[in-house]
Amino acid sequence: MSRTKEWVSSSRLAKERLVKSVRYIAWSFPPPAWVKLNTDGSSRGNPGESAGGGLLRDDVGNWIVGFGVNIGVCSVFGAEFWALFHGLKIAWEERVRKVIVAF
């Protein structure tokens, strides 16, 4: 019985230490006449098969264009970079010149 009490006591302490604070994160609008580019890249392994994607939204949050791309084999950092590169390329092709990048 004492081991049970010890386990319950230690598990309570562990649970109490898990959450110190809560921070809410939300998408923020770009300034008027600007567009926000959000991108993400990932790989299965490091290096490994990689893909990336993202989207462009206007200053009121409307979707302009989204994309996904198979990158091939690279690192996680490489996947993030290539997703950013493709996003900026698409923004340029869409004649968007005022771009704020958010990862």
TrEMBL record:
Keyword Transmembrane: yes
Transmembrane residue ranges: 63-85
InterPro entries: RNase_H-like, RNase_H-like_dom_plant, RNaseH-like_sf, RNaseH_domain, RNaseH_sf
Gene3D superfamilies cross-referenced by the UniProt entry: Ribonuclease H-like superfamily/Ribonuclease H (3.30.420.10)
Sample GO molecular function, one term: RNA-DNA hybrid ribonuclease activity
Ranges for domain RNase H type-1: 31-103
PROSITE patterns cross-referenced by the UniProt entry: RNASE_H_1
Keywords, ordered alphabetically: Membrane, Transmembrane, Transmembrane helix
Record keyword Cell wall biogenesis/degradation present: no
Name of the protein in its database record: RNase H type-1 domain-containing protein
